[in-house]
Amino acid sequence: MAKTATAYKEKMKELSVLSLICSCFYKDARNKLVRDFEDLEVKPINKRASGQAFEVILKPVSPVSDVAHNLPSPPKRNISLEDIEKKLEAAEDRRKYQEAQVLRALAEKREHERDVLLKAMEENSNFSKMAEEKLQLKMGQIKENRDAHLAAMLERLQEKERHAAIVRKNKELREELTA
Question: Is the pTM of this model over 0.70?
Fold first, then answer.
């Protein structure tokens, strides 16, 4: 099939040049032009505004033409034991190199994963410390506020007690003076 495609390409090149030359000399005969080649037939189709058009018909491959186109295989060269050993050593070196590349890539990946994990742990630890410090600060402020509030309440209670004692004393003095 590849031989047919190659032959087709070559014939199309020849046909375009041939068609150009013929169209210059034989303008009337150009429409009736049919070309037969070994394995394809070319018929021109009505001229289009964009240029010429052709119908290319591939002929079925005949067994006779296959025999003529078969190329002999290149001669086999003798391979020595040393050549085989060299090739095997080269293959082993390539395998070892590829294995080392894979191991290096895996090691780099593991190193990256470890770095990411360490960074995440460090950030988590820092976050925990910061949260604990904030909590301790907040708890300290709450305790200070509570103690201040209790002290203020006690102060007010003591002030009321003093005021009540003064009022009782004044009441007793009034009762003594009126009695």
Answer: no
